[in-house]
Amino acid sequence: MGRGMLATALCALLLAIGYGLGAFAESFSLNQCYALSLRTLAEKADRAAASKSDAAIARFQDLVRSLPLAGPKTNCKRVELAVEIPDALEGPSRN
């Protein structure tokens, strides 16, 4: 094997490692985003249910229905922002 082939193989290996690390980092970040969003939704669901208020439960249901979900094309940052809507027990947002 010549030096050129060895250099090419080494570059290909380094690119593959870099790509793999980048894909892992992106996947980890995305999973953290979804975990935070789901945790926040679970907390809001618990508070709405504990309130035993039909209005609070209805507001929570509206929040869940309004989430920008698009299957595999879902943008987690948009979901995260939507989940940050004021708590179901606080009533409509104050702008």
List keywords for this structure.
95 residues
Give the helix/strand layout:
Elements: H1 3-51, H2 54-65, H3 76-83
Describe the structure.
- By secondary structure, the chain is an all-alpha fold.
- It has one domain.
- Helices cover 73% and strands 0% of the residues.
- The protein is built from three helices and no strands.
- Helix 1 (3-51) packs antiparallel against helix 2.
- The longest helix is centred in the first third of the chain and has 49 residues, at 3-51.
- The radius of gyration is 22 Å and the shape is rod-shaped.
- The mean pLDDT is 79.
Low-confidence stretches: none
The secondary structure category is mainly alpha
Task: Sketch the major β-sheet.
Answer: none
Shape: rod-shaped
Could you give the order of the helices and strands?
A: HHH
Q: How much helicity do the residues have?
A: over 70%
For the residues shown, what is the average pLDDT? 79
- How large, in whole angstroms, is the Cα Rg? 22 Å
What count of structural domains? 1
Give the number of DSSP strands: 0
Strand coverage percent: under 5%
Q: Distance between termini?
A: 69 Å
Helix count equals 3
